[in-house]
Amino acid sequence: MKLIQVGMLSVLCASAAFAADAATVVTKEGTGESAVVNKDEAKAFEDAKQKALRSAVEQAAGVNIDADTLVVNNQLVRDQVFANTSGYVKKFDIVSKKVEKNVVTVTVKADVITGDLDKDIQAARSVIKRMGRPSIVIMVNEQTLQNGKGITTSDNIATVLTQAFKNDGWDVKDPAFAAGKIHIAPGASLAAAEAKEIGDLSKASFFLYGTGSLRNEEGGESMIPSTDNKGNRIWFPVSGQYDLALFSTSTGEVISKVAGPLKGVDVGKSKLSYENTAYEVVQFNKANVIESVRKGVLENFRNALTNGQEIALVVAGLESYGSAQQFAKSIETMNSIKSVEQQQFDKGKATYRVSFLGTTSQLAEAVEAVTFKKRKIEVTTVNGNKLELQVAK
22, 53, 83, 210 — which has fewest CB within 10 A? Predict the structure, then answer.
C-alpha cells in the first residue's frame, strides 16, 4: 500500500501567533440595564454592570476579530465573549448609574485585553471550522404549562438551538426523519443503540436530545403584580428549565449532559401573551443554554483533533480473515491514523474502529488515494462518523 501524507491538524491557533499581541489593550464603553425585582436594587446594579462589561468586551471583539468571523460565526463569537467576560477586562470604571421606572442603567469604561480575547475566539472558531461542517439532529420535547390548567407542546428551545448551530456552520438535519420511526419518551435515557439508529436514519454525526418546560407562575415569588389595580394584564411571570444531552451517533457516547433553569425575563421584556413571553424567556436565556451545550462540543472536537476521533470503517471485498488483518496493518501505517482495531469479519466484509486525526471526509479522500494489494479502494458511503469501502477485484 502506498503511503500518503495527511497533515496533522492543529488543535488551537499557535500561541506564538498571539504572543506579540498578548498585552494589547483597547478601551471601550458599554451600557447595561436590569429591572429591580423584590426591591433589590443592589442585585439589579450588579446585573446591569455585568451586561455593560459584556457590551464593552463584545465591542473589542468587533475591533480585533476579522469581519468574516463575525458574519459566519457571530453566535460563536458572542457566546465565547460572554463565557469569559471577566477574563478579558483588565480594569474598568463606572461612568454613570441611574434608576428610572424601576430599571437600573449602568455605563462603564473598560480596558479590554484583546490578545487573549482574540486567541480564545479564533481557537473556538478554528475547532469548528476544522471539523468540516459537522452534521447534527436537534430534538427537544418542550412542554408549556399555563396556570396549571393545561399542557401544550412548543419548540422555542429547539428553534434557538437550531439557529445557533446553523450560525456556527453546522449542517442541521431536519428531525422529520424520525416521524413514525423513533419514539423517545420525555425524560427517557437514550441508549447507544438508539443513538446509532438515529445516526443511520439521519446521516448525522451528532444528536442533541432533551426536554424543556415553561410555566406561567402567577402568584409566585415575584413581588411585582402581573396586573394593575384595574385588573389589566401588565406582564406574564414565566420561567422554566431545560435538560439536554449531546450524543455521538457513531458510538452512542454521551459527549455532554447539561441542565439548568430558564430564568424569567425583566418586566419590560414581557409580552402581552403567555406564548410570546415564553419565547422571550428562551431568548433571554439562550446564551447560557447554547454555551453550556457548545462547551461539550468544543471539548470533544479538541480531543478529536489532538488524540484522534473514532471512525467506524466497513470494508467489503476482502477474501479472507487474514486479508482483513493485512488491511488493518496497512492502513495503520498511514499518517494521521493513530490506531486501528478490527472488530469482526463476515463473508468478505470487515469492520474496524479507527482513530483518525481529521474528519470522516478527509479519511475518505486519503484511502481513495491508495491501493491495497495493487487493487483500487473505492469509497461507497460517507455517513457521519461511518465510512464504507469496497476493495476492487
Answer: 22
Strand segments (E) across the chain = 25-35, 89-100, 103-113, 135-146, 151-154, 171-173, 206-216, 238-248, 254-262, 309-316, 337-346, 349-356, 371-372, 375-383, 386-391
Q: Which of 339, 387, 333 is nearest to 361 (CA)?
A: 387
State which H helix or E strand residue 53 sits in: helix 41-64
Mean pLDDT of 38-60: 88
Residue 354 and residue 310 in contact, taking contact as beta carbons nearer than 8 Å: yes
Q: Compute φ and ψ for 10, nearest 5 degrees.
A: -85, 140
- 26: its cell numbers: 483597547
pTM exceeding 0.90? no
Q: Give phi and psi for 332, each to the nearest 5.
A: -65, -20
CATH of 132-306, one of 2.70.70.10, 3.40.50.10610, 3.40.720.10, 3.40.50.300: 3.40.50.10610
Mean pLDDT of 191-195: 68
Helices (H) and strands (E) in the chain, counts: 11, 15
